[in-house]
Amino acid sequence: MPADTVTIADEVTDLLQHLIRNACVNDGTPESGYESRSADVLAQYLGGSGLEVERFRALEGRDNVVARIEGSDPAAPTLLLMGHTDVVPVSAESWSRDPFGGELVDGEVWGRGAVDMLNLTASMAVAFKQLARSGFRPKGTLIYLGVADEENLGEWGADHLLRAERDAVMADFVITESGGFQVPSPSGPRLPVIIGEKGSYWCRITVRGTPGHASQPFRTDNALVTAAEIVRRIAEYRPPTMIHDTWRDFVTGIFPEEIAAPLTDETELWDFCGALPVGIARQAHACTHTTFAPTIIHGGTKTNVIPDEVTIDVDIRTLPGQDAADITRMLDDAIGDLLPMVEVRSSDDNESTASPRDTPLWDALGRVSSKLVAGSALVPFLTVGATDARFFRRAGSTAYGFGLFSQRLSFEDYATMFHGNDERVDVDSLVLSTQLWEAVAHDLLA
Known about the structure:
Blueprint: H1 3-21, H2 36-47, E1 53-57, E2 63-69, E3 79-84, E4 104-105, E5 108-110, H3 118-133, E6 142-147, H4 158-164, H5 166-169, E7 173-176, E8 190-197, E9 199-208, E10 212-213, H6 223-236, H7 245-254, H8 257-263, H9 269-273, H10 278-288, E11 291-299, E12 305-306, E13 309-318, H11 324-335, E14 342-350, E15 353-354, H12 360-372, E16 377-383, H13 389-395, E17 398-401, H14 411-417, E18 424-426, H15 427-445
Parallel strand pairs: 3-6, 3-7, 7-17, 8-16
Antiparallel strand pairs: 1-2, 2-6, 4-5, 5-18, 8-15, 9-13, 9-14, 10-12, 11-13
Helix pairs in contact: 1-3, 1-15, 3-15, 7-8, 10-14, 12-15
């Protein structure tokens, strides 16, 4: 590596290791996460270059970090680089290494958050500091945001900031997680850009029965037994396949006709997914179907008491154009004749969001990434999870998910490590992303 690349590699690796070791685990409770630990690290790191760093606290321990390089032209576009600092819980016994050790092994940094998304959070910060050190004075303003609570709907992070501190974070263009893994194609590497995401419709199904003594179970109205059948029906429910424009453009931009044809055929895609590698199959299925995943069940009070109430939490992700009425119809269809025995309440109803492609940011990403990855081109993609981009899209920003990954990190590996075991990222990918952010800032803002 050239000397400057070695310096970038060392710096971004070290910062990522610190963020992983802070173990800002967000389990969904207000007192979890404690992203203030990583806010301390980022504020110290960025402040060392003379940047003014602001911290916004939505709740004790849930700090958000904002730094700015002000532009000289108020009419020029503004760009926000946004990375979250929290990570999801982990089952340490299933990992080959300490999930919060941040170990560097064979050119890879191991740990929870290595690909979701502390890698980008760290590389964005390093690029931001590099720009400040170089005396970068753009026409448009560049903003860095290390945001809390992304892994639990953003209440103490992006959602709070846009409601309470809008002037500090609002931008014309936003880049957050995650795309840019190199997908081979007959015409060269294709780099997915997340232009939209599925919506969410988290709901709780309450099943009621009649209590009784468990020593006499014959002909009892056991809410747990009914709930088990409802879980089975929802898990086996097969919603219709929907081939939307983003999926079609992604597939046809990458795959030859013999693969693209079944992946864009509503009558063939379901069966074709069964023959694909698991990571790609899950993505292909989720990108083209409303998904229903029963995830939590609670019920019963004592071993010798027939339970009279059981609750089932279901994670439902919706496709572009769907609303609550569509999901209600599907749930009714899945539950069938047991519907009179349940009550369904939604705790989260966020419709799918998307940004257009005919924008200066799309063009800038294309120009820059084609220089960093020879022969590459961008393709649009829909992420099946939720990101903080949705808040900014609804506020009027163009928001994409992007980054750059080396060929060492395949799409299959990325898909299986995301919220999975043995999460890790290679140093070459960290360097590529850092170079990307710096180049995009020059291209779009200078």
